[in-house]
Specification:
Distance between the termini: 42 Å
Number of strands: 13
Strand order of the largest sheet: 3-2-1-4-5-6-7-8
Largest sheet: 8 strands, mixed
CATH topology of the largest domain: Rossmann fold
């Protein structure tokens, strides 16, 4: 569906399109999870890409063809892009804008103290973009990819660009909002086979330039207004958070009744006509990461601002906290004081610790005086987690004891965690972790938060969180 092309009510909002001349050179501001993947994948499509970040370690790593994060197939693409002279990096945003045609913005949008969106990094990026635009004559397209409340792109970012550049949106530069739907751990695959491509635009010319960039992976992008595109990103992630909480509440009800919650949900998701996708809809542990918690808070804050009551949205954080409390209760009831954890990141296949719910569990156990050991296949001794710790300290200051202790708690091997622990808590479902647990299943007390096995083990020392 091409909303702009097929819906007359949108067509009159945009100027007559100008012809697109040749391929675009692209700059990507922010080399975190979204930005680093964007640099690699855009270069794999044949584009010349400049990666930009204030962190020189990230820019140096990408310039060398090395990935600053743990993400499947990412380093291979970065290496190929550098070898083909398609990838370069800089810490100078204005210079990158001057030497490219399109700028993707993927900076952080943390939660503000009032629960809304913190625009610090967006404002800083916008000002630098404007400084770059002031030095060039050609039309430039700025593409926002950050999660922001509806109207933020036009009310926050555009004024900053116009002030710094002395130029006008629509005449001198175009603005698009292009939400990303990349799952950490499978981001490269998701880029190349997107569930949908959404382009919100302020003019047709800008929309067509961005559509051309994505055409090799999605020939039929959905084009709409910027405000609609901004809201789509929020709605998608709130729905994912809702699915996680819904399935976990099913598990909490089923367990005391002696009902197999996974059998219930296996039947539930067979209805793909009404019950939609099975993704997320399995009882397990709490949601976390850099998107779902932040954007649930943002939508609740947005609803409060407009005077709308959203009891389900408002209850998501509460029911997610209940799942964390359930896990803590299971561990405390064991009476063990030496606790091992297999998995630390909020999901398997990534090294992202931001708002990982298992950190909440570990923090409470540290307060109880427990000895903790932990292993995560994606987090190695040389993994850069200092920036993530700053994020954790900002958003969750009460986790300071865990953040400070974590480097000492990490182990290089999963089996060593099992062997030195009285209880092992499983938070990720991967072949490696299944093998580790299977090798010690009859010897170790296992608390499974992810349902490692299709058939629930019958050993007396095994317990699941919702089954």
């Amino acid at each position: 569906m091409n909303v702009l092309a097929n819906t007359a009510q949108f067509q009159h909002q945009f100027p007559v399109p100008r012809p697109v001349e040749g391929s675009s050179k692209i700059s990507v501001i922010g080399l975190g999870y979204v930005g680093a993947v964007s640099v690699a994948c855009l270069s794999s499509l044949g584009h010349q890409v400049v990666g930009v970040d204030v962190d020189p370690v990230k820019t140096e790593m990408i310039a060398d063809g090395r990935s600053p994060i743990h993400e499947q197939n990412l380093e291979e693409l970065l290496t190929a892009g550098v070898d083909d002279a398609l990838i370069s990096t800089t810490t100078d945003i204005a210079d990158a804008v001057m030497n490219t045609d399109v700028t993707f913005v993927s900076v952080g949008t943390p939660t503000a103290p009032d629960g809304g969106c913190d625009f610090r990094f967006i404002r800083a990026a916008a000002k630098a973009i404007g400084e770059g635009l002031s030095r060039k004559r050609n039309y430039h397209v700025v593409v926002m990819r950050c999660s922001v409340p509806p109207a933020s792109t036009l009310s926050v970012m555009v004024p900053e660009i116009e002030r710094a550049s002395g130029k006008a949106m629509g005449d001198d530069f175009g603005i698009c909002f292009n939400p990303e739907f990349l799952r950490e751990g499978t981001a490269v695959a998701d880029f190349n086979a997107p569930p949908k491509t959404v382009i919100g635009a302020n003019d047709w010319f800008a929309a067509e330039i961005v559509a051309d960039i994505y055409r090799p992976v999605d020939p039929n992008p959905i084009m709409t207004t910027i405000e609609v595109a901004e809201m789509v990103k929020y709605v998608d992630n709130v729905w994912h958070a809702t699915k996680v909480c819904f399935a976990n509440e099913v598990g909490r009800v089923c367990k005391p009744l002696g009902v197999d919650s996974h059998a219930v949900m296996d039947i539930f998701v067979e209805d793909t006509k009404l019950n939609l996708s099975p993704y997320y809809l399995k009882p397990g542990f709490a949601y976390g990461g850099s998107c779902l918690p932040k954007e649930v808070r943002a939508v609740v804050h947005l609803a409060e601002q407009v005077g709308v009551d959203t009891p389900l949205f408002s209850s998501l954080a509460e029911t997610n906290e209940k799942q964390i409390e359930t896990a803590v209760d299971l561990i405390r009831k064991s009476g063990a004081k030496r606790i091992g954890f297999l998995g630390l990141a909020f999901k398997a296949g990534t090294d992202d610790l931001r708002e990982s719910p298992i950190l909440e569990v570990i923090n409470r156990l540290i307060e109880d005086g427990c000895n903790i050991a932990a292993y995560d296949p994606a987090i190695r001794p040389d993994t850069r987690v200092d920036n993530q710790f700053e994020y954790v300290r900002h958003v969750c200051p009460h986790l300071e004891p865990t953040v400070s202790a974590l480097p000492k708690l990490l182990r290089a091997e999963g089996l060593s965690v099992v062997d030195e622990s009285d209880v092992v808590v499983v938070t990720q479902n991967t072949p490696e972790i299944r093998q580790i647990v299977a090798a010690r299943l009859e010897k170790a007390k296992i608390i499974d938060l992810v349902r490692l096995f299709t058939t629930t083990p019958t050993f007396k020392n095994y317990e699941g969180i919702g089954w």
